[in-house]
Amino acid sequence: MIGLRNKKAVGRPTWTGSSGARPPSVGRVLVYVALIALTLLFLAPVIWAVLSSFKSRNELAERPPSLLPDSLGLDNYTEALSRFDFTTYVSNSAIVTVSATVLTLAINAMAAYALAKYNFRGRNLLFLITLGTIMIPLQIILIPLQQVASDLGMTNSLLGMIIPPAATPTGVFLLRQYMLTIPDELIESARIDGAGEFRIFLRIILPLCKAPLAVVTIFSVIWRWNDFLWPLVIAQSQDLYTLPVALAQFNSEEVVPFNYILAMSVVSMVPVILIFLVMQRHIVRGIAQTGLK
Amino acid sequence: MTVAPAPAGRDRRTPDGRRSRRSSTPWNQRLAPYLLVLPNMAIFGVFILYPAVNGFNISRFDSTNARTFTPVGTQNYERLFSDAEFFDAARATAIFVFAFVVLSTVLSIALALLLTQPIKGRTFFRAAFFLPVLLSPVVVGLIWSWILERQSGALNSLLGGIGLPEPGWLVDGPLALGVTIFVGTWMHVGFYTLIMMAGLQAIDQSYYEAARMDGATSWQQFRHITLPLLRPTMFVVIILSMIAGFQAFDFIYTLTGGGPLGATTLMVQYIYEHAFRTPIQYGLAAAGSVILFVTIFGLTVLNFLYGRRKESV
Fold it and tell me: Looking at the keywords, is Cell membrane present (chain A) (predicted)?
């Protein structure tokens, strides 16, 4: 990483180019103060929610609220899972997230490879369409899309949540940009060795694309696990609710006590935070590498 | 889906054949790209392109049950443009998107500048700002509505404890819209910061060295090196945040539910409620959808053209 020395609005001459140790200046102290204050703003609500998820209903109603829970008992968690059927919603979310991500990775990578490494009629048009569809988020075609899903009998099924948003244009774009950097000679020599087209894709191209595939995986998992509007439209019966749909619906109907809602909110945070911690360097590198256009 | 290898085709190829004589490309190499793009493009077609076009068609029909439709011509639009709720939603959306884009862009530049300083614990700070990006918007809305609750919320308990007034964050219309903008920015800004950081790190350090040798102040360096060279990145962030702003729905659903009295009901919620909540007014939703679609598409294209022109100057 490169240390940028230009501080906004600190307004002092810069002879701070060297990276050697020096006494803390006013500017550096201000940087730390700003960072710590902002970090509090970003972390405090989440930490507060996690701490409070262990509190009983009575503790939550206290005013002023106590900072720490009386105990770290898991009652809220176990009762929400058993008494309010959150096991079903968590498993619906998991099924949708995993299968949608696998499907997205497969079809995005295939399309990206064709767009990057083959010369074929219609390639430029398909690439333009890919770029164009980036500008059409699901929200703005919600009504006609719901019509298509209903015509195809996909409403009220997990399949209907998984398939329609699976072909992500950003995924195709990101993977294609990366695949362009793979030398053609690699593919040519594999052909000369007698490898079939699909085999080259599976055995040579995909293993070289671990970094961008990791980025697509992370974004797909985060998006699908947290997605709300499309599952809300598709799930008509309660047993098809995903975790976010269940949380939103039960919270607005006030049928489930808030201590359970809070515990299940924390459950919803765990998988994405774990994935992020494991793969975080891929995200930063992926964004830097693909340069985002 | 497998493509069988075809040795015969490969043997037929001449050294320079691939470019001059199309027919000498083995059939499997000609077929493969179409099979590879097929699944992805089929889903594009059926679930993005067709709905995008069909949206215009649907907006000429009305329905009260989303199953049987009656053609009504342009009546949906006439009704939409005489619907006060639609104008409230459009106005709230315009305010929300504008403030959200400006805040996201400015804050992500500021945060990216802070986070690229040579500081201790940089990885920790970066992760902290990125955390809200990982959370479900539904959960973000839930947590903030609980913290900002007027009577028993943590923030007002804190404010009351030190003798400050306790505002009705989510029950006062304009204030609630402000809170919505704040929470939206809180949730997304970490992602834009990451993009800005990539942009900052792509700037050649020799510019700064030269400027320092000429005695440029930090502010001058920022104003005349960082900002101009960061423009392409800012352009990406502006487009992404604009699209995200128009999409805003899920965190508002649990933060304010669109209230008080529709003050935070944005376009997506307006469309959702008219299409899927009784009493169903499908025509209004479909027409509203088209308006939103045209707005986003138009603004993105304008943005793109403007960005292109700037870059070519």
Answer: yes
- Is B211 a member of any domain? yes
Give me the DSSP letters along A198-214. Answer: HHHIIIIIHHHTHHHHH
- Domain assignments of chain A as residue spans, ordered by start: 26-73, 77-290
Number of domains comprising chain B: 1
**Structural domain span for residue B179:** 119-230
**Residue in B10, B24, B44 to test binding to A, most A beta-carbons within 10 Å:** B44
Q: What is the CATH number of the domain that holds B123?
A: 1.10.3720.10
Half-sphere exposure at residue B286, Cβ-oriented, CA atoms within 13 angstroms: 30
- Shortest CA distance to A263 belongs to which of B142, B132, B253? B142
- Token pair belonging to A193: 């060795």
ipTM value for the complex: 0.83
Sequence-ordered list of residues with C-beta below 8 angstroms from that of B150, at least 6 positions apart, any chain: B156, B166, B167, B168, B169, B170, B171
Contacts of B47 in chain A (CB under 8 A): 145, 148-149, 163-165, 167
A45 touches B at CB < 8 Å: yes
* Residue A183: CB atoms within 10 Å: 8
Contact A248 B202 (CB under 8 A): no
Mind listing the pLDDT tens digit for each residue in B209-251?
899 898 888 888 888 889 999 988 898 899 889 989 999 999 9
- DSSP designation for B226: I
- Most confident of the following: A2-11, A15-24, A222-231, B21-30: A222-231
